[in-house]
Amino acid sequence: MSRINTVTRETANTEQTALFDAIQSKLGVVPNFLGVFANSPDALKAFLGLHEITESGSLDPQTGERIALAVAQGNGCEYCVSAHTAIGRKAGLTGDEMEANRAGTSHDAKAAAAVTFAKALNENLGDVTQAELNAVREAGYDEAEIVEIITHVGMNILTNLIGKASQVDIDFPKVSLLNKAA
Fold first, then answer.
1. Same domain (yes/no): 43, 93
2. Where in the sequence is the domain holding 19, given as residue range(s)?
3. How far is 158 from 53, CA to CA, in rounded Å?
4. Rounded to two decimals, what is the model's pTM?
5. Structural domain contains residue 173
6. What does the radius of gyration of the chain's CA atoms come to, in whole angstroms?
7. Is 45 in the same domain as 87?
8. DSSP letter at 29?
9. b/e burial code for range 145-177 (CB count within 10 A of at least 16 → b)
10. Cβ pair 46, 155 in contact under 8 A
11. What 3-state DSSP class applies to 107?
């Protein structure tokens, strides 16, 4: 049971209902974590705006999902690992690829650089080395794409915080966290 109220259609006020209608029309469903966000319609609107920016950027959807999986695994957010496994599958990622992403890499060389960089950003709270920046550039990412990778990491940290703090009920097929090496 979620430790923070999950707003539902039955409990939503007019503003929350309008936001849910917009989410429903776009996604076909209102995931539970957005119901937690809906406690503050302003916070939900901010998240949706950030999500819209990441969707319209130059990174392909698969790379966005790879980053989300690496960050969720790194932060130990089972809700987000479960959600992005389902979304990643819809985006065309294989089980082996998503396992690699959760470990901080990819079977695709260019995507591996983005995922490795995202993992470093997450683990070091943005304090990455020049070598880490150089590696993502050498893989073919330009300055705009590097900023988008950073934005994806930040957005996913936010959702991981919501997922973990609230212990929101997982409404995707549940995927367990990978065991961390000792």
1. no
2. 14-56
3. 15
4. 0.95
5. no
6. 16
7. no
8. S
9. beebbbbbbebbbbbbebbbebebebbbeebee
10. no
11. coil
Indicate the number of domains in the chain: 2
d(CA 116, CA 131): 12
CA distances from 120 to 7, 71, 74 (A): 34, 10, 10
Confidence of residue 1 (pLDDT cuts 50, 70, 90): confident
Q: Work out the average pLDDT over 128-152.
A: 98
Amino acid at 122: N
> Would you say residue 158 lies in a domain?
yes
Query: Are 152 and 101 members of one domain?
Result: yes
Residue 180, pLDDT score: 64
Q: Measure the CA–CA gap between 107 and 68, rounded to whole angstroms.
A: 16
| Residues 92-101: contacts with CB under 8 Å, at least 24 apart | 92/62, 93/62, 93/65, 93/66, 97/66, 98/65, 98/66, 98/69, 99/178, 101/65, 101/66, 101/67, 101/69, 101/70, 101/73
